[in-house]
Amino acid sequence: MRSISATMFISLDGVVQGLGRPDEDTRGGFTHGGWGPGYTDEVMRRELGKGMARPGDLLLGRRTWEDFTSAWGQATDGNPISAHLNAATKYVVSRTLSDADAWQNSILLRGEAVETVAELKARPGGDLSINGSASLVRSLHAAGLIDRYTLLIHPVTLGSGMRLFEGEAPRTEFELTGSVTTGTGVIIAHYTRR
């Protein structure tokens, strides 16, 4: 059985929305987009690189897949992140997409996330990693399908926005398996489900 890990950039008050740029995700009138890039430093890049160096496939929700497709899908700049994302097998979970042809190595998982991902997890293959895709992570967490989290906890509160752990979910305990603090005050915490 495959394992599923989720890497999430999160504010101190739990917001995971609109990290990268002001127009990234304005749902619900969110006006704080672009809160994350100023905290990126060499320590964060190194730690994220370790995660990308592990073998496995990507699992993405539709919104994140579409955003990554436009940001990384056509990149030929020699950036190691672009190279990694373009080469990886990408499973995109969606009820609305008709195909996943817009980005190489993408496979559409049509239907309800919990059902399609549970089936994928049960099949032989590489471990699955989720980057972003907060709605997908919340539904998979509530179903007990997330095995590990890497949380990049940023020293900022936003006061509004989509939070990582909103809605119904069972009590779940995790073990802290490692942590690193960046020079900008971001705590990168690794948790494994007990």
UniProtKB/TrEMBL annotation:
<feature type="domain" description="Bacterial bifunctional deaminase-reductase C-terminal">
    <location>
        <begin position="3"/>
        <end position="187"/>
    </location>
</feature>
<dbReference type="InterPro" id="IPR002734">
    <property type="entry name" value="RibDG_C"/>
</dbReference>
<dbReference type="GO" id="GO:0008703">
    <property type="term" value="F:5-amino-6-(5-phosphoribosylamino)uracil reductase activity"/>
</dbReference>
<dbReference type="GO" id="GO:0009231">
    <property type="term" value="P:riboflavin biosynthetic process"/>
</dbReference>
<dbReference type="InterPro" id="IPR024072">
    <property type="entry name" value="DHFR-like_dom_sf"/>
</dbReference>
<dbReference type="InterPro" id="IPR050765">
    <property type="entry name" value="Riboflavin_Biosynth_HTPR"/>
</dbReference>
<protein>
    <submittedName>
        <fullName>Deaminase</fullName>
    </submittedName>
</protein>
<dbReference type="Pfam" id="PF01872">
    <property type="entry name" value="RibD_C"/>
</dbReference>
